[in-house]
Design goal:
Helix content is 29%, strand content 26%. It has helices spanning 39-50, 64-79, 111-118, 137-151, 234-256, 273-285, 300-303, 310-319; strands at 2-11, 15-18, 54-57, 88-92, 97-98, 105-106, 127-131, 156-164, 181-191, 196-204, 213-216, 229-232, 263-268, 333-340, 344-351.
């Protein structure tokens, strides 16, 4: 028995937000002081570091549960399964449903329960639950699906990553330009086909690192102090990721028994282009090699960082031939890896 992704789907919001849209923003530092250079300089430096030219925001009337449902529908259709045969729906997110213009998250019922409801699944033995694991949430959901299937508790699971980060950003913080909205979904099931998940690794670093990403006040001191926004210590996250993610990827690859020369693609969380490039360089340096050309497909330039949705969306685009000069083929060995709030790191090795 092998465990494979048998269907995928994604929802990429229609609203395109280019960097020029931030030209009129009042960007402040942590002390509430206006940045000493123009927004043109701010956005140009931002693009050079992150690679982001534009991002997608969900329409005002859509919630995280809605876009998760759209992606789930596509994954189920792609797999050709009867949704009533799903044993688990595992939904990774971080902030639940936040209405446009609201300041309160809505998590009752769970986002997974809402998606199951929208899919009109009657089977009560299809268990739906949410997972909070930072940006690596979708990979952790896949890991849990794998564990359920290996244990005999399940044969087929739907794993979704969905987020509307545009609703929890501080407009006065230049880091707000990183975040975007989106959803990706995959059907994971037992199969007799060759390949599938060969190995996985997960870790939580909390002793010193737990609050590298956190909820904090707006940089605008006139804003309500009881309203919080997503914040991060960017330099600490960068250094943490470069130090720990390559080692986790190597550990996972060694567990699989696959040689580095067999790896065809690395699908890494789309957080920051320069950071991701540095992670790949360090990973291959552990093997005294340089990364092969085209090893790391990227979607961040046009889609931004949609947290848990970045990797399943990237996988779906690749699987369906929607990324220029990039593709996945039968038999390819792929490394999936992510890092994010917690601080959490995870990876799995997959043979197409």
């Amino acid at each position: 028995m092998n465990i494979k992704i048998t269907g995928s789907g994604s929802y990429i919001p229609n609203r395109i937000v280019p960097n020029i849209d931030f030209a009129s923003h009042l960007f402040l530092d942590e002390e509430g002081v206006q940045l000493p250079y123009s927004n043109e300089v701010v956005t140009e430096k931002f693009k050079q570091i992150t690679g982001i030219e534009e991002r997608r925001y969900a329409d005002k009337d859509l919630l995280t549960s809605d876009i998760a449902y759209f992606a789930a529908q596509k994954a189920i259709e792609d797999s050709g399964i009867d949704p009533e045969t799903l044993d688990y729906i595992i939904l990774a997110h971080n902030f639940g449903n936040v209405k446009h213009g609201a300041i309160q998250t809505d998590l009752v019922p769970s986002i997974a329960s809402r998606v199951k409801h929208s899919l009109r699944i009657k089977n009560p033995n299809c268990v739906a639950y949410d997972i909070l694991f930072g940006c690596p949430g979708w990979i952790e959901g896949v890991t849990q699906a794998m564990a359920f299937i290996k244990s005999g508790m399940a044969k087929r699971c739907l794993v979704i990553g969905a987020e509307t980060l545009s609703r929890v950003v501080d407009p006065h913080d230049r880091d707000s330009m990183i975040y975007s909205d989106g959803a990706g979904a995959t059907v994971i099931e037992a199969t007799e086909e060759e390949g599938g998940i060969l190995a996985q690794a997960s870790a939580s670093f909390t002793y010193d690192e737990a609050y590298f990403l956190f909820f904090g006040n707006s940089y605008n001191k006139d804003h309500d102090p009881d309203v919080r926004y997503i914040k991060m210590h960017g330099r600490k996250i960068y250094e943490f990721a470069l130090s720990n993610v390559p080692k986790a990827m190597k550990e996972c690859l060694e567990k699989s028994g696959v040689d580095i020369s067999e790896v065809k693609k690395v699908l890494i969380h789309q957080a920051n282009e320069k950071m991701d490039e540095a992670i790949i360089q360090r990973f291959y340096k552990l093997y005294k090699q340089t990364p092969p050309e085209g090893i790391m497909p990227m979607s961040i330039h046009k889609l931004g960082n949609s947290s848990v949705a970045t990797i399943p969306t990237l996988y779906d685009l690749l699987k369906k031939g929607l990324l220029n000069d990039q593709a996945l083929h039968k038999g390819d060995v792929v490394i999936f890896a992510s890092v994010g709030a917690g601080m959490n790191i995870n990876a799995f090795i997959y043979k197409m």
